[in-house]
Design goal:
Number of domains: 2
Structural class: alpha/beta
Number of strands: 15
CATH class of the largest domain: Alpha Beta
Distance between the termini: 64 Å
Number of helices: 8
Shape: elongated
Amino acid sequence: MHQRPRVVFFGTPAFAVSCLAALAEVADVVAVVAQPDKPAGRGNTLTPPPTRVWAEARGITVVQPAKLRDGSFAAWLRGQQPDVAVVVAYGRILPPDVLAIPRFGCVNVHASVLPRHRGAAPIQWAIMSGDTVTGVTLMQMDEGLDTGPMLSIRRLPIGPDETSAALFERLAALGASLLRDDLPRYLAGELPPVAQDPSLATLAPILTREHSRLDFAAHSAQTLHNQVRGLSPWPGTSTTLGTRRLIVNTTRLDDPPTVHGGAPGEIVAVTREALWVATREGLLGVTALQLEGKKSMSVRDFLSGHPVRVGTLLGQELRP
């Protein structure tokens, strides 16, 4: 295309803002579609999504439809005469009548190397699955859940102690770069679509607090370390200390002490830097933690107010 394309952007959270900003460099963003405002914070104040805040500050129209399938939204989108729709973490599946409107279809920036980790939480599940490499995929959208043909992929390594919060930032920047460079190439017909191999597909379902529980008997230290990293900062990970919920914020695997024995969940060594907990396989060092309702603190600070001894059992409610 010789002139800047007309684009409607679908996206809601902070992750989508960098892509939206990059898109505005190479296209005319005629409108932003975001999820409705939601309560947030301790006061449950109705809060606009980050994409709305960014767009309104620049005079871009924002719509936040409660429904996409009643025909009225499709009629509105048709009136925008978009060349293409760009979707980044919008949070809803677009119905067929919406997908069919833009002249060049709808494309999605997905935060994984498809077909691995289709679904709502690809960044967290990449870490929890122990992946060492992830990336972003630009894909044509169809009616399925992240099943459309791929247009381009960029990859990056996952650090051994990297949290989902840190990886979010890096993938958001990578997605923005991908969109800035490759959306014009797509519109120029330079990116032939490549079908996904469904036999390689994995799912990254939405996270709930049910994923938070650390089970020392069922999992290895490496798997639990991945769980803590992947679920930081939300929904977090926890176990129990006596009758109280103990939130585990950071862990380590390096330089474990030399100890023998220890039942899963048993604290087998206490240092100034970590509580070392036996697991199904290996030792997990807990380095930052908090009792529910209290603030997070280092092990050194925690021990000054909560003496914990070798032999203490964590997660006893998990035991049969």
